């Protein structure tokens, strides 16, 4: 191709997608500002109320109205770029712009048994399994517990879950805690792994998690966690779970605006504690199905609102917590694959940064390694799609076309050998064999059967480098300290 200067030549590095125009993004953001200033929120934490009052907010009991100027200051003060590292201190995730990373979700009530497929309550072994599988899957970037473990002290299941994850996975951890004491236990264990709190602050491999109560209520536990994270310079996700028609008005625009307002409270408080504190907005924006009252993870409105909140966050120049890889189906079937694929693709196209809940089934009630392993394949496919099409002299290959000419083939061309491995995507679970090969070489297996076999192979053969014995011992001591604390609480009651 002749070399020339072409005016106004636009290049798309990834496929184009936009749910909201920039004007619509601005309108939603400004509506969130108005909600905080005009309607206000309820906050049940004394320290947060004192911070807000000192900053110039209007306080009436627990009702707080936040002037738009204060909120806009906080958004500008919060970092637009947050780095997360792995357990070994290597940079793993750059949460900014349209970078997209995927991981499972937390706190499911039930878990799908990896051997029998039974739906049952999670146990600590399940958390360990989730760690090992997440460590092995190449397209899963971070880990959540995918189920609150039972069989341990109930009020410390979050602490036990953290030890299980950090012992079995090297990737960044996004984790919740019941209250500030458990948060402290978790941060103490994480600090032990990396040799101290200062090292953890410099290269955080954990991101804490908290959520307000929609609509517009911030419990002591929820907002105090944002304060704790800011004081300790640890990243935190502050994210609502809103329900269109239930906890928000029955329109998507209002639901996103209200959810943004709830995230903004966490942003304001965290920046009042320490300007520049790392915080991530976002959330789970779903509908209440009016026929079943289910909080739907597979509706088209869910997909649209997840794209909408990502775009509003980009408008605000804030990292965003997205949701994908989940389903309302109760098992691994066509519905589970279809709903997961839609959400994973839209999360990537809208540029959500930290996308959680991969592996959620049964409308979020059930954590499933089957779903997680299947979604790893889907994410890989979506990543290839999002690479788009490179158009230049090499990829247009006009000289190659001319040399081969009409009626020829390209199998023996050097150009083919240079490009076919990188230009095309090769599945690991999806079958592309002809019928006879599928029956003989693949045993006529279904996608679900291949997913289950891959999951079991990982659990059987994948090895995670163990933490040093002295680190494990110190973590056990932290857990024992927590057990004594909880035991003392029960005796006082």
Description of the structure:
There is one protein chain. This protein is an alpha/beta fold. The chain folds into two domains: 75-386, TIM Barrel (Alpha-Beta Barrel); 394-461, no CATH class. Helix content is 48%, strand content 13%. The chain has helices spanning 22-39, 46-55, 68-77, 124-136, 157-168, 180-194, 197-202, 220-232, 252-273, 300-316, 334-350, 369-386, 393-396, 398-404, 414-423, 435-440, 447-461, 469-492, and strands at residues 41-43, 58-60, 63-65, 82-85, 91-95, 101-102, 110-112, 119-120, 173-175, 206-210, 217-218, 236-238, 241-244, 279-282, 284-288, 295-296, 320-323, 354-356, 360-361, 366-367. The protein has a seven-stranded parallel sheet. The chain has a four-stranded mixed sheet with strand order 2-3-1-11. A four-stranded mixed sheet has the order 8-7-20-19, covered by helices on one side. β15 (284-288) and β16 (295-296) form a beta hairpin. α12 packs across α17 (447-461). The protein is globular. The model has no long low-confidence stretch (mean pLDDT 96).
């Amino acid at each position: 191709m002749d070399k020339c200067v072409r005016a106004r030549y636009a290049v798309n590095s990834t496929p184009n997608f936009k749910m909201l125009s920039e004007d619509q993004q601005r309108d939603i953001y400004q509506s969130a500002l108005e909600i905080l200033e005009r309607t206000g929120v309820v906050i049940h934490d004394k320290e947060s109320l004192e911070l807000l009052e000192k900053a110039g907010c209007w306080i009436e009991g627990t009702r707080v109205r936040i002037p738009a100027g204060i909120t806009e200051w906080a958004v500008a003060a919060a970092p637009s770029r947050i780095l997360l590292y792995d357990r070994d201190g290597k940079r793993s995730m750059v949460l900014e712009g349209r970078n997209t990373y995927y991981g499972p979700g937390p706190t499911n009530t039930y878990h799908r048994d990896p051997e029998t497929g039974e739906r049952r309550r999670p146990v600590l072994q399940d958390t360990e399994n989730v760690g090992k599988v997440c460590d092995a899957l190449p397209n899963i970037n971070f880990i959540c517990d995918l189920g609150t473990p039972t069989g341990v002290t109930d009020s410390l299941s979050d602490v036990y879950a953290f030890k299980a994850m950090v012992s079995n996975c090297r990737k960044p951890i996004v984790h919740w805690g019941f209250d500030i004491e458990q948060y402290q236990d978790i941060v103490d264990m994480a600090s032990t792994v990396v040799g101290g709190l200062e090292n953890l602050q410099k290269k955080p491999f954990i991101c804490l998690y908290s959520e307000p109560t929609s609509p517009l209520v911030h419990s002591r536990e929820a907002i105090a966690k944002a304060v704790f994270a800011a004081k300790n310079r640890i990243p935190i996700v502050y994210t609502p779970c809103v329900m269109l028609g239930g906890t928000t008005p029955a329109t998507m625009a209002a639901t996103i605006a209200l959810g943004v307002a709830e995230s903004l409270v966490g942003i304001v408080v965290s920046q009042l504690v320490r300007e520049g504190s790392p915080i991530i907005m976002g959330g789970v924006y779903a509908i209440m199905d009016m026929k079943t009252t289910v909080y739907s993870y597979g509706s088209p409105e869910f997909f649209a609102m997840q794209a909408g909140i990502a775009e509003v966050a980009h408008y605000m120049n804030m990292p965003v917590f997205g949701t994908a890889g989940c389903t309302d189906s109760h098992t691994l079937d066509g519905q589970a694959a279809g709903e997961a694929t839609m959400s994973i693709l839209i999360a990537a196209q809208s540029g959500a940064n930290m996308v959680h809940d991969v592996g959620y089934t049964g409308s979020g009630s059930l954590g499933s390694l089957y779903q997680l392993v299947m979604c790893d394949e889907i994410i890989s496919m979506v990543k290839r799609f999002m690479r788009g099409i490179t158009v230049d002299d090499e990829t247009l290959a006009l000289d190659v076309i001319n040399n081969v000419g009409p009626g020829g083939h390209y199998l023996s061309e050097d150009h083919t050998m240079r490009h076919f491995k990188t230009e095309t995507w090769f599945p690991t679970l999806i079958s592309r064999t002809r019928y006879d090969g599928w029956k003989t070489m693949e045993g006529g297996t279904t996608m679900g059967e291949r997913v289950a076999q891959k999951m079991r192979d990982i659990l059987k053969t994948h090895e995670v480098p163990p933490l040093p014995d002295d680190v494990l011992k110190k973590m056990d001591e932290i857990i024992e300290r927590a057990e004594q604390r909880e035991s003392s609480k029960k005796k006082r009651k």
